[in-house]
């Protein structure tokens, strides 16, 4: 599974809205979901695209102690009965988290 594009924004209820273009093998189609945070919203969007994902564990931290460091996130998930984990790195903690989740899902799909 590959995701061609994604974005996170504020949802009207104060949560998060996640929109992505997953390629599930039948071509790319836009999917969106809402949740209490970026990762739950991403899981909801993937579910709407027919990709069931359960997040089992999540960790995030800065790569250095100063204010200019990148964030690194680790996500363990289960999809299709297979468990995998992966890592994401980005200047934004939110983006690092999403990158880690999508990379882990890609491993099992």
TrEMBL record:
GO terms for biological process: L-leucine biosynthetic process. One of its GO terms (molecular function) is 2-isopropylmalate synthase activity. InterPro entries: 2-isopropylmalate_synth_dimer, LeuA_allosteric_dom_sf. Residues 2-109 form the 2-isopropylmalate synthase LeuA allosteric (dimerisation) domain. The keyword Transferase applies. Pfam families: LeuA_dimer. This is 2-isopropylmalate synthase LeuA allosteric (dimerisation) domain-containing protein.
């Amino acid at each position: 599974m590959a995701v061609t594009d994604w974005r996170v924004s504020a949802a009207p209820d104060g949560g998060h809205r996640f929109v992505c273009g997953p390629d599930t093998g039948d071509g790319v189609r836009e999917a969106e979901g809402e949740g209490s945070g970026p990762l739950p919203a991403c899981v909801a969007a993937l579910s709407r695209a027919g990709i069931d994902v359960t997040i089992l564990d999540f960790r995030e931290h800065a790569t250095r102690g100063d204010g200019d460091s990148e964030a690194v996130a680790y996500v363990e998930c289960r999809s299709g009965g297979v468990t995998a984990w992966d890592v994401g790195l980005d200047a934004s903690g939110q983006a690092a988290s999403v990158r880690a989740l999508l990379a882990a899902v890609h491993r099992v799909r």
